[in-house]
Design brief:
The protein is mostly helical and about 425 residues long. The protein has a single domain, classed as Up-down Bundle (Growth Hormone, Chain: A). It is built from 17 helices and two strands. Strands 1-2 form a two-stranded antiparallel sheet. The longest helix has about 30 residues. It starts with a helix and ends with a helix. The relative contact order is 0.16. The C terminus is likely disordered.
């Protein structure tokens, strides 16, 4: 039994045997914790200044609108660049942005305009960082470990969402917003140092795409011609617009009908993120991802959101929050693995940028919309709309991939070229 547990742990964390990925993993864990600390602190600051769901929704819009506007172009930049060098520059700029945010908070005269402007700068950084970082994951490990590295990268993102919001709640209450933002600035040094310490000889860099006109359109045509990419992206667009608005829905739900305060909001946010971490580690153990898993995870996400919307009090909201975290990350990881493994190397940056556009880039539309619904019909209605959207996306996926979802199967253990060819044939049937 003990040896089986050790074997399972080795399978789950096998990509960490690679030194470069281990450095990246550690740096990202620290840096992303700081990022979530900052994002939750920004939400609390705007909520304290305005007590408005629309204002909080607009904050998320400013944070993610650049992803929607610049996403396709950012993918071409990622495809043409030395990804490690570009990431180092982006993390340095992000550090400066966090210092500026801390200065605004320390001034004692924080305004919505200043917060929104700095949130927009953060959004530009995110638009470039997201496809570059995710494409760089593939360059650090061998082909059989790509999906495991993707899952562990998701675990970093979700693990940081457990610690970051809790830190935000504690720091805001004890020392104030400025120190929270300053700690985020310091956290970027971890990933910068990790990138600089990597061994270039052990990387597997893709051949940079040659700068040419029409590269964005070429990437869009590539996705449209491959259903194994198109279906997950459409599902993510639906879910990203209406369901993944936790920064809007959770604080409004907790401080409204559930009767909690700022500390309770950050605690529930951490509970949801803890469920996400559990889901990410579970998916990291799997050697295959199927279209059926994608559909089931999406439907489960919808059921969990409807359960949270109907929760009569915090006693039920917390266990439902765990389920919400597990199902949401299972959906995200499944869709990301299918898209990442099935993208040809020369298109990967553009495909991942498009994924960021439909997921993160949908937030500027969905955030204010869900905030408005929450103001008009109540926070429970805002959460319920997201749950229904997940069920609609799951129904679309089942129709497009077949009831079993088997046409969407991706074998993680095979070389990328083999997987891509088989999936192209299977999904064209």
């Amino acid at each position: 039994m003990r040896s089986r547990a050790r074997g399972a742990a080795r399978d789950t964390f096998r990509s960490l045997r690679v030194r470069n990925f281990r450095l990246f993993f550690t740096g990202q864990l620290i840096s992303q914790t700081g990022t979530w600390l900052s994002m939750v602190a920004q939400t609390l600051l705007v909520l304290r200044l305005t007590r408005s769901g629309v204002a909080v929704g607009l904050l998320t819009a400013y944070q993610f609108a650049p992803v929607l506007v610049l996403g396709a172009w950012a993918g071409t930049v990622a495809d043409r660049s030395d990804k490690r060098r570009l990431l180092t520059v982006l993390q340095t700029v992000a550090m400066v942005q966090s210092v500026a945010l801390a200065a605004v908070a320390f001034s004692g005269h924080a305004s919505l305009v200043a917060i929104y402007v700095l949130a927009g700068i953060q959004g530009v950084i995110t638009a470039l960082d997201n496809p570059t970082r995710r494409a760089f994951v593939v360059e650090m490990v061998d082909a059989p470990d790509v999906a495991n590295a993707v899952s562990l990268n998701s675990a970093v993102m979700t693990g940081s969402r457990v610690v970051g919001p809790a830190l935000a709640g504690a720091l805001v209450v004890t020392v104030g917003f400025g120190w929270a933002f300053l700690l985020d600035a310091v956290s970027y040094s971890a990933v910068i140092v990790g990138l600089l310490m990597m061994r270039s000889s052990e990387l597997h860099p893709s051949i940079p795409a040659i700068r040419a006109p029409g590269q964005v359109r070429e990437g869009l045509r590539y996705v449209r011609a491959n259903d194994h990419l198109l279906v997950p992206l459409v599902m993510m667009a639906i879910v990203g617009t209406l369901a993944f608005n936790f920064q809007v829905t959770i604080p409004l739900l907790v401080t409204g009908p559930l009767g909690g305060g700022d500390g309770t909001f950050t605690l529930l946010f951490s509970v949801v993120s803890g469920g996400s971490l559990m889901g990410a580690l579970w998916t990291a153990r799997r050697t295959a991802v199927t279209g059926r898993q994608l559909i089931v995870a999406c439907a489960g996400f919808g059921v969990a959101m409807l359960g949270l919307a109907a929760a009569p009090g915090l006693g039920l909201a917390f266990p439902v929050g765990v389920l919400l975290g597990v199902t949401s990350i299972a959906f995200m990881t499944s869709s990301t693995a299918i898209v990442q493994v099935c993208s040809a190397p020369e298109y990967r940056g553009r495909v991942l940028a498009l994924q960021s556009m439909v997921f993160l880039g949908s937030t500027p539309i969905g955030g204010p919309l869900i905030g408005w619904i929450s103001d008009v019909a109540g926070p429970r209605a805002g959460v319920a709309v997201g749950g229904l959207a997940c069920l609609v996306a799951a129904a679309y996926g089942a129709r497009a991939l077949g009831p079993s979802g088997e046409k969407g199967r991706v074998d993680r253990g095979e070389p990328e070229s083999s997987v891509l060819d088989e999936d192209t044939v299977a999904l064209a049937d």
